[in-house]
Amino acid sequence: MTTQCNKKPSKLELINQASREDIDNWVAKYPADQKQSAVMAALRIVQDQNGGSLTDDLMDAVAEYLGMPTIAVYEVATFYSMYELKPVGRHKICVCTNISCMLCASDDIVKHLQTRLGIKLGETTSDGRVTLKEVECLGACVNAPVIQIENTYHENLTPDKIDKILSNLT
Ligand code: FES
After folding, report:
1. Is residue 21 within 8 Å of 28, Cβ to Cβ?
2. Which of 84, 88, 89, 94 has its CA 20 to 30 A from that of 31?
3. How remote is the CA of residue 43 from the centroid of ligand 1, in Å?
4. Using a 6 Å cutoff on CB, does residue 103 contact ligand 1?
5. Which of 115, 144, 120, 147 is nearest to 131 (CA)?
């Protein structure tokens, strides 16, 4: 007689110690029975750990770590634009094209970035240096047009400013 085990193998080991400590700090901000409230932070942390993108296994690991249904983690990861479900370049340039930025010539900013980088929105340079991504409002409308690179906002942009920013990217 054979026995079958339907339990899925744990993926917790995919979350490294530093990420666990970081996630635990976020979990501690919420009531003990609301660990899942840290899901957005946890996804950002493991995404950073993985070089800027998520994998199914990492999302499964986050669900396991926070004791929540896997589907709920997938729903968050696929809803918000800050999560990447495919590998990205070393730098991710998020260009806001929402209403305030559009009225302040974000189209010119997009065109200039595309020309300088030789890629279109949603693409990554062949050397893996930069991914260019169109995003919704970054919440800095008063200083439109705006881009975000990693955790830094660049505001009141002009093509000249873009050139300086790109020349400082490694
Ligand atoms: S519309 Fe671009 S930052 Fe708000």
Report:
1. no
2. 84
3. 24
4. no
5. 120
Of 52, 53, 72, the closest CA to residue 62 belongs to 72
Domains annotated on the chain, with CATH: 12-79 (1.10.10), 91-167 (3.40.30.10)
pLDDT along the chain (170 residues), means of 10: 64 97 98 96 97 96 97 97 94 97 97 97 96 96 96 96 94
Q: Is 146 near ligand 1, meaning CB less than 6 Å away?
A: yes
d(CA 128, CA 164): 20
Q: Is the dihedral of CA 169, 100, 133, 64 positive or negative?
A: positive
Nearest ligand 1 atom to the CA of 138 is 3
**pTM to 2 decimal places:** 0.84
Cα distance between residue 17 and residue 46, in whole Å: 11
The finding on whether 95 has its CB within 6 A of some atom of ligand 1 is no
CA neighbours closer than 13 Å in the CB half-sphere of residue 26: 19
Please report where in the chains the tokens 């000249």 appear, as a residue: 160
- Expressed in angstroms and rounded, the spacing between residue 148 Cα and the centre of ligand 1 is 11
